[in-house]
Design goal:
Helices cover about 25% and strands about 30% of the residues. By secondary structure, the protein is α/β, with parallel strands linked by helices.
């Protein structure tokens, strides 16, 4: 999934890397790319990129130990001043009706804010997340442009996403 996402990163892009294991794999693939700017709330992604590769901007806010991300209303001060070409988002759940969901309202706040600031939103999620609904809504499908997932995603789920005009990439 991360390798498929890498194909969407162009020279000169300013991209956002969200928290989560799949997005972290994308960060690892970007270690040698000095021709992009990465904005992130993920301490794990920042650690991967520290000292080499892309220009790195880490946003501030409340530290969430579980996900090792910085989240909540304090993130607004940085994010609202930035223009993001692409946002690569992780998620706990993907539901046709509920959209993207996560376990923490502060994390959901930051995810929704990022999605509103990006010209293109790409969700990186394996098929096990399809149909799952977690505690807090973290974004609606109308903000998502691309879903990058694996080949095991349910055909009915795919059909509905195509109706919503979301590009699907199956890695």
């Amino acid at each position: 999934i991360a390798e498929a996402a890498l194909k969407f990163v162009a020279d000169g892009d300013t991209i956002y890397l969200d928290g989560g294991s799949t997005v972290l794999e994308l960060a690892r693939l970007l270690r040698d790319r000095s021709n992009v700017t990465v904005v992130t709330n993920s301490l794990r992604a920042a650690t991967e990129l520290a000292g080499r590769g892309p220009r790195l901007i880490v946003i501030g806010g409340e530290f969430r130990r579980l996900s090792q991300t910085v989240v909540g209303p304090l993130t607004r001060h940085v994010l609202e001043g930035l223009h993001l070409d692409k946002a690569f988002m992780g998620t706990i759940g993907l539901s046709l009706r509920e959209g993207l969901t996560t376990t923490d309202p502060s994390e959901a706040y930051t995810k929704e804010l990022v999605m509103s600031q990006a010209r293109q939103v790409l969700v990186l999620a394996d098929s096990s997340k399809a149909g799952k609904v977690s505690f807090a809504r973290a974004g609606n499908w109308d903000k998502v442009h691309v879903l990058i997932t694996d080949r095991n995603v349910d055909k009915d789920f795919v059909r509905e996403l195509i109706k919503k005009k979301i590009k699907l990439v199956r890695a």
